Every structure is written in structure tokens, then in C-alpha cells.
């Protein structure tokens, strides 16, 4: 089993903030006890948070609560070219980073509500995104008392904002255990490498050391969706990226994402994205020009 990346806050600091440049984003499905505020500065790929799957690109900003399973899989994860293409800034902090009772005080009610919302993950958009990103970049160079004030300022900005949307569904229940992380990592790895082809349930179940029926029950209980819904969302996420790039026709995108018929692709795309591939592409092009 691959060791999980250590995210723990050190015993001599209240929180961690760092800006990084790496070849790819952390490719391991994992979770940790700290809250995480993360912004993608450069890079693109597929983002997995709880039961949510989405294409990400520069500007993606989220706040995640403790033990929320997640990973950002870079588009070029499997390419041999490992020049730094993953640029981000991240803050890790524990729920009691200012003491066990601090956030129970009446003055902290907005921050406590923010922490509760973060249990399902929050995507930060609009003007709030711009303001918070500027504050995060400033925080990288702050130390001591100023750094604590900087983090509280960021959290208060988020707590007062209406530009924070839930990521995982409100019906999502986090049933993952640390002992199961490797099993889910193997499943994610296999699907990401083979989603453009026909995927065998028997093959995936064998990788998880389960029978097909047991694997289906296991996966749905933890991901809040069926395994093949999961595969479909990965394919549609890849399709969104290809449509945004605009180098292929919609029919070519469908086949590139593992669909054998354009009608099936159009149906599943509309079920997932809530609009047709052509309309999705047109709206993105309009925003890009505007």
C-alpha cells in the first residue's frame, strides 16, 4: 500500500500554508483530519470530492472539511513529460487550531457555520474567489500573529460570502475508512486509465478482491452512486474538457470518451451537465470571448 501523503499540522504551528509547483497534483485518493482551503493556480484535470466528479482548471478553489475524500488528477498524469505543470496554494488547519473552545464563542458563530458547511465541501466562486486568493498569496509571506489574523480574515470573508456552493451532495455520507484508501485508489487508477475503453465490472471487482455483486454494494455505499454512474461521470468530465478545447467535433468527442453511439453520449451528457454538448460548448465559447 502506498503511504498517504502527510498533511498534519506541526505541533509548533497553528496551521500550514504553502504555495507549490509540482509535475502533477497529488494523484492519490486520500483524506485527512484537517480542513483544507485549496486553489489551483495552474493546471487542469479531473477533481474528485466525496461523491462529486468535475473537470477542474486554473482558478478552482475549494474548502473541504475534515476527512472528506478527495483528489485532483492532472490531465497529463500519465505523460512522461514531468515539467512542473501543477501550481497551487493550500492551507491546512485543524478545527481547534485556536483552542478547543474558541469557535464555540458567540462571536465565532459565522465561522462555526462555515465549518459545518465545509463538511460537504464548498466551491468558492465570483468576487469572493478573487478576494480570498489575494489574501492567500499574502498569507504565504506572513508569520506569527499576523499569520493567524490573516487566516481568520480569510475564513471570515468566506463565512460572510454567498458565493460558496456545496460540492458533495447533501445526501453524501462519508463512510470511508483509512484501511480502504488503497482499494479505492486502485479502482480510481484503473478507471482513469481505461475509461476510453469498455470497462469490465468483473475486472474491477477482482482488483478490489471482491465478487462483482459485493463490489457494487461496497462502491455504492461509499460513493453514493453506482460504479457505472461513476464511470459515466468521468467520461463526461473528460468530454467537457475536450469540448472546451474545441479541437474535435461532438461525434469525435463522444468516441474519444468511450461512447459507442452519439445518442448515448448526448443522453448521458445532458443527464449529468443538464444541457446538450453543443449548448455547453457554445456557452463556454461565449464566456471566453466575453
List the helices and strands and how they pair.
Elements (H helix, E strand, L loop, with lengths): L14 E8 L12 E8 L2 E5 L2 E5 L4 E4 L5 E5 L11 E8 L15 H9 L4 E3 L1 H14 L4 H16 L4 E3 L14 H14 L6 H7 L4 H12 L3 H19 L4 H7 L5 H12 L3 H13 L1
Antiparallel strand pairs: 1-7, 2-5, 2-7, 3-4, 3-6, 5-8, 8-9
Helix pairs in contact: 1-3, 2-3, 5-6, 7-9
Features:
alpha+beta, disordered N terminus, Jelly Rolls, 290 residues, three-stranded antiparallel beta sheet, six-stranded antiparallel beta sheet, 2 domains
Describe the model.
This is AraC family transcriptional regulator. The chain folds into 2 domains: 15-166, Jelly Rolls (Sandwich); 179-289, Homeodomain-like (Arc Repressor Mutant, subunit A). It is 42% helix and 17% strand. It has 10 helices and 9 strands. Strand 3 and strand 4 form a beta hairpin. Helix 2 (126-139) runs antiparallel to helix 3 (144-159), helix 5 packs across helix 6 (212-223) and helix 7 packs across helix 9. 31% of the residues are buried. The model is unreliable at 1-6 (pLDDT under 50).
